[in-house]
Design a protein that fits this description.
The protein has about 200 residues and is of the alpha+beta class. Strands 1-2-3-4 form a 4-stranded antiparallel beta sheet. β1 and β2 form a beta hairpin. α2 packs antiparallel against α3.
Length: about 200
């Protein structure tokens, strides 16, 4: 479903490493954690998590808290074991939820896919979100494998670009899971503005 070539595949956390997960072996990238990363993880508290199975993909929505505040980490694990993730401040997650409703309505209004008449750039509808020095590009796309919502996160000062792809049929389920978390934890970022650490260094968000 995805046309991703995401460079952010270093998702830390043992739950993503569960035995029997599609496309994973007994040891993976998740196991390689430096002492510095371990210290950062210890200072980061997970408040809640939801797991969604959408077609061949698994999505983990984790509400986390560190000294900068609260945020949501969205991790995608494909059937081939590819891992990618994006980070959302709670206020951005609320905006994203609203966009998911709009994209879902638009998707429902579309006719069946026509492989012989695909959009030239694959894009059916696009939106953008801006939060401090971050930009999020939301693109409902169509290719020979189907329709999906690509969510790309970029940082204005440079750094790794990360993206996930949600199968279009799962946008409502994804929105509802996000809504449940926001109803429990609210949309106040709690001072979260600077960043978190990943295996690639400081992700400034």
């Amino acid at each position: 479903m995805s046309d991703l070539g995401s460079g952010d595949e270093g998702i830390s956390g043992s739950k993503y490493n569960a035995s029997g997960m599609e496309g994973t072996s007994g040891r993976s990238d998740f196991d390689s954690t430096s002492k510095a990363q371990a210290g950062a993880q210890q200072s980061e508290q997970e408040l809640a998590t939801k797991m969604l199975q959408i077609q061949s993909k698994r999505f983990y929505l984790d509400v986390k808290q560190n000294r900068r505040g609260r945020f949501i980490k969205v991790a995608e694990i494909g059937a081939d074991g590819r891992r990618s993730q994006v980070y959302l401040a709670l206020s951005t997650a609320a905006e994203f939820r609203d966009h998911l409703s709009t994209f879902s309505d638009y998707y429902a209004s579309l006719g069946p896919p026509n492989p012989d008449n695909l959009p030239e750039d694959g894009k059916l509808k696009s939106e953008m979100m801006i939060k401090d020095n971050r930009r999020y590009y939301l693109d409902l796309k169509e290719n020979a494998r189907g329709r999906f919502l690509r969510v790309s996160q970029t940082i204005t000062r440079g750094g790794p670009r990360s993206q996930i792809a949600i199968p279009a049929q799962g946008m409502i389920e994804f929105r509802d899971a996000l809504t449940d978390l926001l109803e429990e934890f609210g949309t106040n970022d709690g001072g979260y503005c600077n960043g978190i650490r990943s295996r690639f260094g400081l992700v400034v968000i």
